[in-house]
Amino acid sequence: MRWGCVGKGVGVGEIGDYCSCHRHRNFKAGKTTTANGKAKIVAGSRNAKLKVSFFGPFYGDYWVLDRVEDYGWAIVGEPSGRYLWMLTRQAQPEPQVRAQIEARVKEMRYDWSLVRVTEQG
User: Fold this and answer.
1) Which one, of 88, 87, 89, 77, lies nearest residue 114 by Cα?
2) Which pTM value belongs to this model?
3) For the residues 116-121, what does the mean pLDDT come to?
4) 80-113 exposure pattern, b = at least 16 Cβ within 10 A, e = fewer
5) Cα 27 to Cα 121: distance, rounded to the nearest angstrom
């Protein structure tokens, strides 16, 4: 079964909170599912670190580890490095862009083999 992200959105929720929405598509079945979460900005993080919950009172780290100035790509993860995502505006980033992201992940001492490349439909 192949899954891919077909969209992410963030909107303002309760005061100080943000709502996070992730839409995923099962390419084989042709179905799209949506997961709505609640995110809180970590104080002092300059909006780069969030605590996100999709399951009631349980929050996980969701950190923007790096990005380009125009937001063409971002590396998102959590402190242990077990969960890392390469997010790009292009469904198929140019090889040099992917190489740039890979180099940056390694510079930050994260394991590139753990990076999840988001499939876009």
Assistant:
1) 77
2) 0.71
3) 70
4) eeebbebbbeeeebeeebbeebeebbeeeebeee
5) 8
